[in-house]
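Thread: "does anyone have the structure for this chain?"

Original post by V.I.:
We have the sequence but no experimental structure in hand. Need at least a predicted one for the grant figures.
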Amino acid sequence: MASDLLTSALLTMNHLFSKTLRAFGCAFALCLTSLTSWAQSAASAAAPAPTTEQRLAALEAYVTNSDPGKSLTGVAGPGHNGWMMTSAALVLFMTLPGLALFYGGLVRKKNVLSVLAQCLGITGLVTLLWWAFGYSLVFGKSFHSSILGGSEFFFLKNVTSAPNTDYAFWVSHNVFAMYQLMFAIITPALIVGAIAERMKFTAILTFVTIWMFVVYFPLAHMVWGVNGFMNGLANAQSTIHAIDFAGGTVVHMSSGWSALILCMILGPRLGFGREKMAPHSMVLCMVGTGMLWVGWYGFNAGSALAADGIAANAFMTTTIAAAVAAFTWGMIELVFRKHASILGFCSGAVAGLVVITPATGFVNSTGAVIIGVISAIVPYIFVTKIKSIFKYDDALDTFGVHAVGGTMGALLTGFLATADVNPNLLTNLKDLLGRTLWVEQLKAIGLTLVLAIIATVIIAYLVRAVVGLRPTAEVERQGLDINEHGEEGYVDI
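Reply from O.Q.:
Generated one for you, tokens below.
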């Protein structure tokens, strides 16, 4: 009987407790809902929803690639973002496999894999450097310096999918960082052409590591950083009011002049001037050239950082300059050598692409034709005449095409740039445009030359002292493929 009474009492208490708990839960939920509604109302009162006019203005800004204002802050534009991701892939395509095949076809078959390995190795190395420090040193600004960026983006910290509006209103910050990484990759890879077939793999990686910190990162910040020393387009307080749309100074001059100095310090290949060192596969060279040309649309048109009218103009001028230069080089050979070679057409196309690079978003179609003709004639003279006179072993003509072409392109940009193509030139350069802009270009050329040459001399001798630059004579005779990489590009079956 006592147990029945106890059981009944417990059941009654459990029932009352359950009802109390449910009542408390309902009250708590109602209170929470009220608080949430109140908070949302307070937030709405503090930050009212964008008006229809503001939304329409932001949509118009998306179309015109301009500041969206507060209504769409932190939102990437799908079209612009899509184009920039495509452009990043195209620029990587220039190195892998474009440049690798272009250079690989031009060397002797015993060294073809060494060129591929150097391009792959540089790609991995530079990606790590860019992630850790490089991007921040180029596009940061916490150092408040016109020479070097900052530390705020070390290890890509805070590099998210929201745009970095210092550089692009509608492109995700991480997409922008990856796009610029592809430029950082191909620049030192270009140097490989001058020292092909005779530099140790470990020496190349050591040289590139130091060179990126001493030459590329500072130079890229000076030219493209929002507070850069030579960024005349975006920085009203720049010391040198120069312009470089896609890398005449940053990419081609820096790599080309460094390549010349490095190949002279390294010395010529064994048998240079006595043995035949003809390209082993013009087919690979032609395939690589085509890949470079296609990828260059991402390089040049992508440098508009939007799918807009300036990008469209860059697409057009890139096409015209490359085609005109390839044709002109071929016709020069036909007239003076009685044949138009595949190597000549390929060299002309690449030279045209190099020279138009700094000008592509600033010049019109006529300017592109002028650049195309000049970019065939002058590099042709350096490749076929000057090199033989001074007897430097620029194995694959990196200096003759990239250094000479990049320098010439930077100067021609100062004469041919027009605000009809790029109205942004009127923001900070209105008084220089069509007058003395070429003088500012000369200043930028001079500074780039000094930095690249002096730094390369110091780095080359340092690397030579620490790890050595060249393989043994026996290794060089047998080929770098089998000795440095344990493989052969072609195996007879």
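V.I.: this helps a lot. The two ends are 101 Å apart (CA to CA).
O.Q.: and The CA atoms of residues 58 and 127 lie 35 Å apart.
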